[in-house]
Amino acid sequence: MNIxxxxxxxxxxxxxxxxxxxxxxxxEKDALDLLKQSxxxxxLAIGKLIHAHFIVTHRATEDxxxxxxxxxxxYSKCGHVHxxxxxxxxxRHRNIVTWSALMAGYLHSGSPxxxxxxxRNMGDLRPNEYVLATIISCCSKxxxxxxxxxxxxxxxxxxSGFIFHLYVKNALIYMYCMSSDVDAAWxxxxxxxxSDAYTYNSLINGLVEQEHVNEALRVLDMMVIENLEWDSVTxxxxxxxxxxxRNLKLGLQVHCRMVITGDFDYNTxxxxxxxxxxxxIDMYGKxxxxxxxxxxxxxxxxxxxxxxxxxxxxxxxNGFFEEVLKLFSKMDSTRVRPNEYTIAVxxxxxxxxxxxxxxxxxxxxxxxxxxxDHVIVGNALINMYAKGGNIGAGRIVFVEMIYRDCKTWNxxxxxxxxxxxxxxxLGVFEEMLAVKExxxxxTFVGVLSACGHLGWVQDGLYYYEKLMNEMxxxxxxxxxxCIVGLLSRAxxxxxxxxxxxxxxxxxxxxxWRTLLNACHVHRKYDLGREVAEMxxxxxxxxxxxxxxxxxxxAKAKRWDGVANxxxxxxxxxxxxxxxxxxxxxxxxxxxxxxxxxxxPEFAQIYEKVRELLAKIKALGYVPAVGSVLHDVExxxxxxxxxxxxxxxxxxxxxxxxxxxxxxxxxxxxxxxxCDDCHSAIKLIAxxxxxxxxxxxxxxxxxxxxxxxxxxxxx
Length: 714
Description:
mainly alpha, Serine Threonine Protein Phosphatase 5, Tetratricopeptide repeat, 64% helix
């Protein structure tokens, strides 16, 4: 295996390979220079060859400080910090460079706690500015609880005068930004003399990470006013800022600056690197201009995993889930290997399409590629299985994860809540608190939703009124809407309406529709008419509201009300969206529309539906003909109900999987499930002894043994 490397001038013509290395002899300094070059280029194999050379020439002993320091630096930069630690532990004498190299290795390998622990064991050896900058950088890592250590280091830097070294100053600025202490970061910037591009890069990066976008824009203004030279890191940070605030105009201006200054050649892509290209694509994607993102991608001469993942992410963020999967097939054909971020994007696309079969294939690929232990992949897997209807598989992924972050817990809590498994969701929440993981805004949306599914009013109000305040989470519209749902489900409709009128919130149509649905379920038709008017004012084109109000009139036998709704729909040219359901089997998706006769096996499917309906009628099933809006006889209404899309999909799945009683049938539907289908599927699940999961536009329904997980409230 030949390894090319930019070598020092005196042996620049040398071409190294494992087979010819023994033919060459090096001067001591040459070997060290070559090792340093291989460290910069992250060429692990060359470093190992030189390490072997040192061993053979007895220059890798415990007393060879310079050589061992260089080896520690090499293995640390190549991502093999465990080998560096072994070399460190064997040394009899260490200097400040030894400690600094290993600490930097721990920092860049994602083990800041180990670096700080090493720092504490330095004994009488005084840290220099490099060590101090490294440890402060470790303390800036979020989630490791090292901020107090960083404050102590700040005090030492001030006392020793190391704070006047630019890299110490920059590290402190970044640390305070990451801890959301923006005032402290500004004080250091303004009180400590000397700044460079890296100073402003650290400040913008930290402010963007912590979502202090106004302060980040202020720093950008300062850079422009002071006419500072921008480097590649500056451009990456500024494009990241544009992405965060979704400011396409600013992004275009920054892009134009690159072109005008010659930092980025649009046609040849010279003088640019993969991170800038990735940042530009990401910016256009997040700002909603996918065509420009694709244009930048298409003009690249060489495409690597970063470029591919950026464009896949752009398509994902704009809802083009199928395009993500198609584009990944092209990436695969170029033999560019995906990384953990690519896998996460694919899983999110599968979740968006609810194609659990394809998602399972990606899961297999993640296991084979060694990506399954990455937190970002684990989180995406939980989300994919939860949205695909297999919450049990999501739980298995959750349990097997070695590392978890707040998003992991949120994915599991919200996944359970979405499936109506409130007790399980709250159980995970208790686990989260037990391990001292701090819940955030998204966590409490899942928790309050779980309380709503269970009808636990007092528990929900406790979380909303007390615990959120203790955790420092400001209630938002989603939390308020969950409280409306909580009170509504418990039948406390007047209290829910009073809450909506008194809360200082600008309610959206979702909250009012939640209350309207509760009026329908609890048969509070007078209040329902009042709420329906509010919903129709907010969203006059929402066909679901008209259908719901019509059904309310039908249940109350107010046929004049049904007629008025039909007339209103005709006048406003509002048509009911056709019901469509789909079921996935063996990595193929089968789509059915209501009264669908286009399927090649439609005769057998219809016969299967009739067979199932005959069986469940013996158990007491009566078609809910009152919910049919068509002005036809009851007999025809029954025929209309019989062949709704979800019934066709379930019948087809039962035809094709007759012997798989242990496997659930998972059906997706684009509309709210009607009362008749809900009643019928409960009994179909009972007579067939199968678990049937249906996800409609509102939630998941798990039918088993004649019952549904929603407890007939949806």
